[in-house]
Amino acid sequence: MTRIRLLFCAILIGFPTVSQAESPIDFDRDIKPILSDNCYHCHGPDSESREAELRLDQKDSVFSERDGYWIVQPGNLGESELIARLVTSDPDELMPPAESGKELTAEQIELMRRWVAAGAPWKEHWSFVPPTRPQLSNLEHLEGARNEIDYFIAQRLATAGLKSEPMADRRTLVRRLHLDLTGLPPTAEQVEKFLADNREDAYERLVEELLASPHFGERMTVAWLDQARYADTNGFSIDGGRHMWLWRDWVIHAYNGNMPFDQFVIEQLAGDLLPNATTDQLVATGFNRNHMITHEGGTIPAENLANYASDRVRTTAEVFLGLTMGCAQCHDHKYDPLTQRDYYRFLAYFNTLEDKGLDGNSGVNSVPKTQATSILGRDQIEARQLRRQLQVLEQQQQLPLGSQAAWEEQARREIAELGQDLVLVPAEVINVSSPNRISEFELRDDGTLFLKNGGGRSPSITAKITQENVTGLRLVFYPDPSFERGGLGYGKKEGLEGSFLLTSMSVSATVAEQVDLYEMIDIRSATATASHPDHPAVDCLTPTDTEGWSPGTGVTTPQSITFQFQRPIHASETPYLTVMLVWGGGRSLQGGKCRIFTLSGNDDQSNIPLEVREILEVSPDQRTPQQGERLRSYHVSVAPERANLRYQIANLKERLETLTGKYDVMVMNTAKKPRKTHILNRGQYDQPGEEVTAGVPAGLPQPPPGLPDNRLGLAQWLVAPDHPLTSRVAVNRLWQLFFGRGIVATSADFGSQGAPPTHPELLDWLAREFVDSGWDVKHVVKTMVMSAAYRQSSVTSPEKLEADPYNQWLSRGPRFRLEAEFVRDSVLQVSGLLANRIGGPSVRPYQPPNLWREISHYGSSPATAQVFVQDHGERLYRRSMYTYWKRTVPPPSMISFDAPSRETCSMQRERTNTPLQALVMLNDPQFVEASRKFAERILHSSSETDARIRFAFEQALARPPSNEELEIVRQTLQQELQRFREDPAAAAEYLEYGESDRDPDLAVEEHAAWTTVATLIFNLSEMITKG
Amino acid sequence: MMNDMHTRRQFLASGKHLLGGAALACLQGESAFAATGARVPAPHFAPRAKRVIYLHMVGGPSQMDLFDYKPQMNDWYDKDLPESIRKGQRLTTMTSGQARFPIAPSKYRFRQAGQCGLWMNHELLPRLSEKADEICWMRSLHTEAINHEPAILAMQTGNQVAGRPCLGSWASYGLGAINENLPAFVVLVAIPSNRDQEQAISSRLWGAGYLSGEHAGVSFRSKGDPILYINNPPGVSSAMRRRSIDGINALNEINYRHLGDPSTHTRMQQYELAFRMQASVPELTDFASESAHTFELYGEAAKKPGTFANSVLMARRLAERGVRFVQIYHNNWDHHSNVSGRMPSQCQDVDQPCYALLEDLKQRGMLDDTLVIWGGEFGRTIYSQGQLSMTNYGRDHHPRCFSMWMAGGGAKGGTIYGETDDFSYNIVKDPVHIRDFHATILHLLGFDHERFSYRFQGLDQRLTGVLPARVIPELLA
Q1: Domain architecture of chain B: domains with CATH
Q2: What's the CATH architecture for A419-605?
Q3: CA distances to A918, B181, B182, B317 from B281, in Å
Q4: Cα B464 to Cα B159: distance, rounded to the nearest angstrom
Q5: Which of A576, A889, A910, A917 to mutate to test the interface with B (most CBs of B within 10 A)?
Q6: How far is A903 from chain B (nearest CA, A)?
Q7: In B, residues 326-385, which contact A (CB 8 Å cutoff)?
Q8: By the 8 A CB rule, do A481 and A517 touch?
Q9: Is the confidence at residue A13, as pLDDT, over 60?
Q10: Tens of pLDDT along A932-990?
Q11: Is residue A438 over pLDDT 60?
């Protein structure tokens, strides 16, 4: 196969084998885990659960003499009570006691014995001691080594009796690098360029090039969003929307600009406290406002605030210190030197802002917050491009269409038939209700429904119908003297005084308190008698919060809106309708008095403006140039074949706005009267004990004098050059990104119970290198991917799989499935659909209908993000890190691929392999559409089958197919081609999936058959694996 | 159906022969945690229940209107709740500002049911009362949480803070799947006939937390795709899908020959499983094979997709096909006001279907090893929230005591466990903390709750957490 054939440089790293049994005892690796696992629960840091006043986590206590005996006497097994208690036959004396459920294995006891016999060397817990740069002097001429990393890897490989693999071929390497550094596969052109680069430093140049790509920042930000528990909604209960994307833009920008990590930490934890803090530094502090919040009625604000502060503690401690400080919320930590007092002193740093316990409803960010522009738009480069692009697109949009004559014909017919056979029958309202709200409605004798001010929220109206063949329904709104300005509703907003804004109407042919989401009648069109220019009837067709129909202010005559159904219903089959009306303006722009009619026959209203109708009546050769122009411009504004162009124009306009306008974002601050912090008994918010001031945990190295006692001091302490944890935790997380698992496998726990590092010296070397380079993230990333360890082939032999199943010794190259986001991004890129814009507000690509609405408070709450409204155009194809993240209903395809829920800080993702993933890859419209578009690319690439297949492989997998593979794909193609020729209707149906335009010049059967080929390739394990 | 009678462990065992140890690890989730101490547990003793059907009543049903009979309260109508009973315990902010806490006696008729003699609401739960002697009644559950979100989380995951695995995920982790063509843990969200007091519920409640993602509940939807993305795109037939998967797997096999990555083989198996799942779901969701007798038993509502009756019948079909844990959520029990307007339809939604489920499982010989659980996340207050009249009242959240029931699966029928004071405000005998409840359920599933753990962030994490919890022997058959 190609990847083997293209091997251009073989390196082998080898050391003489040393067996594990002969190796000297390593306290961190061999002894500490035994003590921690089995003893610390009762003989560790927690004073409350401590037995016999004995601590085995402190040196003094372990080597102490007690009442004439020694716990451990170094070198003397017989005089060491600890050993005696492990091997005694007296069940009352045996440790750990039977009821603890813990038991040492014979090997563990032997290790303990060997340790004592060898003089019981004791070390402070490794991660609490500052890292020092290990010496490499005696290892200078290691064959095949690329940099220092390889010396440390080689040592361990030798100990394990393993050898590394030769360097992977260049196609594998270019794909690996692209996926790792940008989260996107290389294009075939990028692969060719690398293969053609014969310079000695071609690989390094590629690394440099990718580190400079704006997608590097995106890729790094994906991991940071997990740690920072970023989301677009508040999370608890009603789970309303929030706006934090400016903070996300800040993170992308920071990574792309290679902001030194110490600054990255300081600005996110305490940017607001820096002298002369800039707005961007303030935006950075959004890091600790990303946690979930609630505005659920009935919750207790003080309890909520305590929860928020606790989340900031847990997150900050896990992300920067790698410590599970959350364990000390209710009691002293059982394994690490973190007391409950430490916990609340740490919490005091995050308890002084002026946040509120119930806040953040109605899509309005909770305080404290600020207004800012995106840091990504400052250079104006994209804005200038957008303005140019918009000009071009708007011209394109105005070009006349060949379909105009046919449309005119149809429009004339429609107008001629307006109102034909129209029968309107009033529906008898039998019930009105409103979820979560005491309803205030009145059914009047004249058949109208009177909705009292503010009492109605969004009414669900059940009505009995009597008509057969109902093709639509009409809502008529009446004026009333009690309304503002004698108008049609209760609106107070400028422009809508005395009017209303109807944002959506949904209807099911059922009798129930609420509309049945699963029986909703599809609506074909909406027309109105009169509309405010910004609020046309068609805006009622999607359930957005902001857009809808309004007759506008100053209207004092009855006005109606008519909805036409996709399919008629019949009173004899379904005698009831339940109609839900949703009002805009956070439900305040409410209508007041209305009546419902069912109708059959043709609507007598049309959305075609009067003057256009008049022009339509004039025969084409009689029209004035102005009339011809008006007709053309109207037609192009409604023609379905221009829909995607219109979406694109709207998308670009909005993009321009987000790059230049000011938006809201939550930040940290310090209240004028900061809250006091108390130790909470058992962590209960209502059981405050002793008051404490801010401070770092007593068991960790203390800050140098002179640092302030606030978040800024905390941040400066974290990034002090000798801090034992921050640099190690940070480089470990970077390592995890590229090698699949951390040097410390438990990347959120560097404490006693965490996994000891597989390569402690390497970890320390990287940590020192990181700090000494000025916390240079790109430098450390480059160092990792330049190593021979990284560049190895990932070919896995059965022997290695047995000896090193998790590849913890790096006996082969890293190989694992892509993150959820990159699975989708890869497919989008290869299909040609990917819209490669950096940053900005979140977008809403395809998802199954009603997932949000099923569980939301749509219509009854002013909270936003209660109903999913899908985007169109390029916003369907943005990178997955920009997909709107609703915490209670995260995007299902992302969750299938192990994206965390973003409820709490998450430091490492799982990589499961499940049937649900196969279903997403095969059936999610996003992936099916991508196959269709990839097929178009393939078909345009060549006219010859084998060349097309080669093109497909090279674009998707960065390599040509083997003959065997070619044959399988050819066979698939022939089978499906034949089948689609037999059933062209199926082919057409298949190709209709997804909103992107289809190239009409491609034969349907052939396009469909190649779409299955594209699906085949997208579904290969190789496609979604970095290898 | 293939593999019908294979347990997951057997499935893995056969896979082990084929794939070797690391591939096995991949099958179980190719997790970085795996090396740090995760392992597939084995039951600690023979399980009494092989499956669980958990009916969660979202919002918190009021115990004194259903199962916790307090006739003494009739003399207390509109009198203030004595401070000696309230003892300064915290209230939600929805009623903490009320000037008075007037007692609202239940307006419903109670009657003793079965040999066990439980006094229960006979007016609204006539059918369930016929099953009184097969049900294990618990009237002394208690929790710390006072609002829905933390309370449901505590009930389902043992912790008020999000991010822990739920009971169903623990069951999936511990017991695995019986039928590999279906998920081990399925969630059904039933639509109550009245929805005016619904609480938000979300996938957080069936999340796998720190357990491998494969143990998360799979939500079966009553409309649209029963499982998201289960249906082929338009124009794609099952035969074509079969051919595609054959092609995908043939190409994957070539890749495996070159690179030897066991996860490639695992993925090939997942595609086969996906195909079989696609094949088995239509049969599962097609109720046409159910007899007239079934619909007589469950009621007409069982024919309507999404109803509680329909969901319960689906739960039985899932259980029959080897799904380990079915969780049904039934909403709208949050009766802050208008108990008399809301309680009847809530009870009507669940009364006959609960009876039917127990009866149906019994007739099919499945009740003995299927544990059925019914209950909410907390109870409600004896005092009225808002307006009180002889015929109507509202009730606020009350975590200090509430009622639940279990049946089948090793739960002891006819037991009445726990007592509350005359005000159904405090527990006076045999308290059952939700941790005890969880420990007892795990016991019935064959696990010692103290040893049933998962290593995460350096700790052996347990459903019952670090605070004391105990199995309640009186509840076991």
Answers
A1: 41-223+305-475 (3.40.720)
A2: Sandwich (2.60)
A3: 15, 9, 8, 11
A4: 9
A5: A910
A6: 7
A7: 337
A8: no
A9: no
A10: 999 999 999 999 999 999 999 999 999 999 999 999 999 999 999 999 999 999 999 99
A11: no
